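Structural biology now treats backbone shape like a language. To illustrate, our science desk offers a sequence and the tokens encoding its fold:
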Amino acid sequence: MSPVVLGVIGGLAFGIVDVLLMLPMQFPDKRTALTAAFASRFAIGFLIPLCKLPLPWFVSGALVGLLISIADAVITKAYVPILVGGVVGGALLGWIAGRVVA
């Protein structure tokens, strides 16, 4: 499978899962919060198969997930759920990319 196709599939899947997890939560502007969360998680899923770092795939995925999640965590001050979600989701997507792309 092409890394770009895998990135789109992974980004959509990660974005949708994150939005579904956030639906029961309350936000002052829920539409903006959900859109921003989807965009961030889509970026993680999209970039992981495209970034070939000299590390194991799951470590590369975790690193990409961490780096993209830092800005959201700082803005919302919800460090643990955002960073853990980004790292764990990134590692999982990295592991999948390592099986499919490599």
